[in-house]
From TrEMBL:
<protein>
    <submittedName>
        <fullName>Uncharacterized protein LOC110764900</fullName>
    </submittedName>
</protein>
<feature type="region of interest" description="Disordered">
    <location>
        <begin position="176"/>
        <end position="195"/>
    </location>
</feature>
Amino acid sequence: MSGSKHFSEVDFDGITFSDEDLKGVELPHNDALVVSMMVANAKVDKIFVSSGFGPCLLYLSTLEKVLGLSRNDILPVKQTVMGNYGEKTESIGTITLLVTAGDRPPRVRTFMVDFMVVDCPSVYDIIFGYRGLKALEAIISTYHLFLRFHTDAGVGEVRGDQKKARECEKALQELAERKASQGTAGTKSVKVERP
Protein backbone atom coordinates (compact mmCIF):
# COMPACT_ATOMS: atom_id res chain seq x y z
CA MET A 1 0.00 0.00 0.00
CA SER A 2 1.49 3.35 -0.97
CA GLY A 3 1.10 6.54 1.00
CA SER A 4 0.54 6.85 4.71
CA LYS A 5 -2.29 5.31 6.63
CA HIS A 6 -4.07 7.43 9.23
CA PHE A 7 -4.64 5.68 12.53
CA SER A 8 -7.35 7.02 14.77
CA GLU A 9 -5.72 5.35 17.78
CA VAL A 10 -2.29 3.88 18.52
CA ASP A 11 -1.86 1.56 21.54
CA PHE A 12 1.46 1.06 23.39
CA ASP A 13 0.89 -1.44 26.21
CA GLY A 14 -2.30 0.28 27.31
CA ILE A 15 -1.01 3.78 26.56
CA THR A 16 -2.93 5.23 23.64
CA PHE A 17 -2.88 8.36 21.53
CA SER A 18 -5.90 9.30 19.45
CA ASP A 19 -7.39 12.16 17.48
CA GLU A 20 -9.04 13.29 20.74
CA ASP A 21 -5.55 14.22 21.99
CA LEU A 22 -5.20 16.74 19.17
CA LYS A 23 -7.74 19.13 20.68
CA GLY A 24 -6.02 22.47 21.09
CA VAL A 25 -3.05 21.48 18.89
CA GLU A 26 -2.52 23.68 15.83
CA LEU A 27 -2.07 21.42 12.82
CA PRO A 28 -0.04 20.86 10.83
CA HIS A 29 2.95 21.44 13.08
CA ASN A 30 6.63 20.66 13.36
CA ASP A 31 6.93 21.67 17.00
CA ALA A 32 9.17 20.14 19.61
CA LEU A 33 7.71 18.44 22.67
CA VAL A 34 8.27 21.04 25.40
CA VAL A 35 6.74 20.23 28.79
CA SER A 36 6.69 21.29 32.43
CA MET A 37 7.58 19.01 35.34
CA MET A 38 8.51 19.36 38.97
CA VAL A 39 12.25 18.98 39.51
CA ALA A 40 13.64 19.08 43.06
CA ASN A 41 10.26 20.50 44.19
CA ALA A 42 10.42 23.42 41.73
CA LYS A 43 8.30 23.81 38.60
CA VAL A 44 10.48 23.77 35.50
CA ASP A 45 8.65 25.00 32.41
CA LYS A 46 10.96 24.67 29.40
CA ILE A 47 11.86 20.98 29.29
CA PHE A 48 12.68 19.81 25.77
CA VAL A 49 11.83 16.09 25.48
CA SER A 50 14.21 14.34 23.08
CA SER A 51 13.98 10.61 22.47
CA GLY A 52 16.99 10.90 20.14
CA PHE A 53 19.36 12.31 22.78
CA GLY A 54 20.67 10.05 25.54
CA PRO A 55 21.53 12.04 28.64
CA CYS A 56 19.36 14.45 30.56
CA LEU A 57 21.00 17.88 30.54
CA LEU A 58 20.44 20.46 33.23
CA TYR A 59 21.75 23.94 32.53
CA LEU A 60 23.68 25.64 35.32
CA SER A 61 21.44 28.71 35.06
CA THR A 62 18.37 26.51 35.72
CA LEU A 63 20.12 24.75 38.61
CA GLU A 64 20.89 28.08 40.28
CA LYS A 65 17.96 30.34 39.34
CA VAL A 66 15.03 27.90 39.15
CA LEU A 67 16.03 25.11 41.54
CA GLY A 68 17.92 27.29 44.03
CA LEU A 69 20.92 24.95 44.08
CA SER A 70 24.60 25.75 43.55
CA ARG A 71 27.78 24.32 42.06
CA ASN A 72 28.49 22.85 45.50
CA ASP A 73 25.57 20.44 44.98
CA ILE A 74 27.12 19.02 41.80
CA LEU A 75 29.41 15.99 41.71
CA PRO A 76 32.31 17.21 39.54
CA VAL A 77 32.58 14.86 36.56
CA LYS A 78 33.82 16.04 33.17
CA GLN A 79 32.08 14.55 30.15
CA THR A 80 31.88 15.81 26.60
CA VAL A 81 28.41 16.47 25.18
CA MET A 82 27.22 18.13 22.01
CA GLY A 83 25.98 21.69 22.54
CA ASN A 84 22.96 23.40 21.01
CA TYR A 85 24.87 24.28 17.85
CA GLY A 86 26.78 21.04 17.29
CA GLU A 87 29.82 22.22 19.22
CA LYS A 88 31.34 20.06 21.92
CA THR A 89 30.70 21.20 25.47
CA GLU A 90 32.23 19.88 28.67
CA SER A 91 29.86 19.10 31.50
CA ILE A 92 30.78 20.56 34.86
CA GLY A 93 29.38 17.60 36.74
CA THR A 94 26.37 15.47 37.54
CA ILE A 95 23.51 15.67 39.97
CA THR A 96 20.70 13.25 40.81
CA LEU A 97 17.34 14.93 41.40
CA LEU A 98 13.78 13.93 42.15
CA VAL A 99 11.42 14.56 39.21
CA THR A 100 7.63 14.44 39.29
CA ALA A 101 5.74 14.00 36.02
CA GLY A 102 2.04 14.75 35.76
CA ASP A 103 -0.16 17.23 37.57
CA ARG A 104 -3.31 15.21 38.23
CA PRO A 105 -2.83 13.18 41.41
CA PRO A 106 -2.90 10.27 41.85
CA ARG A 107 -1.84 9.85 38.21
CA VAL A 108 1.63 11.25 38.77
CA ARG A 109 4.98 9.56 38.95
CA THR A 110 8.01 10.59 41.01
CA PHE A 111 11.40 9.16 40.10
CA MET A 112 15.13 9.90 40.28
CA VAL A 113 17.01 11.29 37.28
CA ASP A 114 20.75 11.64 36.79
CA PHE A 115 21.45 14.98 35.09
CA MET A 116 24.63 16.13 33.41
CA VAL A 117 25.11 19.80 34.31
CA VAL A 118 26.43 22.11 31.60
CA ASP A 119 27.31 25.79 31.71
CA CYS A 120 26.33 27.17 28.33
CA PRO A 121 23.50 29.31 26.98
CA SER A 122 20.25 27.57 26.14
CA VAL A 123 16.66 28.51 25.43
CA TYR A 124 15.59 25.39 27.34
CA ASP A 125 15.88 24.75 31.08
CA ILE A 126 16.43 21.01 30.67
CA ILE A 127 16.88 18.56 27.84
CA PHE A 128 15.09 15.40 28.91
CA GLY A 129 16.76 12.61 26.94
CA TYR A 130 15.85 8.97 26.47
CA ARG A 131 17.52 7.96 29.74
CA GLY A 132 14.95 10.09 31.56
CA LEU A 133 12.15 8.72 29.39
CA LYS A 134 13.34 5.21 30.23
CA ALA A 135 13.41 6.01 33.98
CA LEU A 136 9.82 7.27 33.68
CA GLU A 137 8.91 4.35 31.39
CA ALA A 138 7.26 6.94 29.16
CA ILE A 139 5.88 6.83 25.66
CA ILE A 140 5.85 10.08 23.70
CA SER A 141 3.94 11.29 20.69
CA THR A 142 5.45 14.39 19.14
CA TYR A 143 2.48 14.56 16.77
CA HIS A 144 -0.02 14.69 19.64
CA LEU A 145 2.41 16.68 21.85
CA PHE A 146 1.97 14.24 24.73
CA LEU A 147 4.13 12.22 27.09
CA ARG A 148 2.34 9.33 28.83
CA PHE A 149 3.38 6.79 31.45
CA HIS A 150 1.91 4.16 33.75
CA THR A 151 1.10 4.90 37.40
CA ASP A 152 -0.52 2.77 40.10
CA ALA A 153 -3.74 4.73 39.47
CA GLY A 154 -3.72 4.42 35.66
CA VAL A 155 -2.07 6.29 32.83
CA GLY A 156 -0.47 9.61 33.73
CA GLU A 157 0.32 12.29 31.20
CA VAL A 158 2.15 15.51 30.52
CA ARG A 159 0.85 17.66 27.67
CA GLY A 160 3.31 19.60 25.58
CA ASP A 161 3.04 23.37 25.45
CA GLN A 162 2.91 24.28 21.75
CA LYS A 163 3.14 28.03 22.39
CA LYS A 164 6.21 27.60 24.59
CA ALA A 165 7.77 25.25 22.02
CA ARG A 166 7.37 27.91 19.33
CA GLU A 167 8.78 30.61 21.60
CA CYS A 168 11.81 28.41 22.32
CA GLU A 169 12.29 27.64 18.62
CA LYS A 170 12.22 31.36 17.77
CA ALA A 171 14.66 32.15 20.59
CA LEU A 172 16.93 29.31 19.42
CA GLN A 173 17.04 30.79 15.90
CA GLU A 174 17.75 34.28 17.27
CA LEU A 175 20.54 32.91 19.46
CA ALA A 176 22.02 31.10 16.46
CA GLU A 177 21.89 34.25 14.35
CA ARG A 178 23.66 36.26 17.08
CA LYS A 179 26.28 33.54 17.39
CA ALA A 180 26.76 33.46 13.61
CA SER A 181 27.12 37.25 13.41
CA GLN A 182 29.88 37.07 16.04
CA GLY A 183 31.58 34.22 14.17
CA THR A 184 33.55 34.18 10.95
CA ALA A 185 33.11 36.88 8.31
CA GLY A 186 30.89 35.90 5.44
CA THR A 187 28.46 33.89 7.55
CA LYS A 188 25.05 35.18 6.59
CA SER A 189 22.55 32.73 7.93
CA VAL A 190 22.54 29.64 10.06
CA LYS A 191 19.78 27.07 10.30
CA VAL A 192 19.88 25.43 13.69
CA GLU A 193 18.17 22.15 14.45
CA ARG A 194 16.99 21.27 17.92
CA PRO A 195 19.44 19.20 20.00
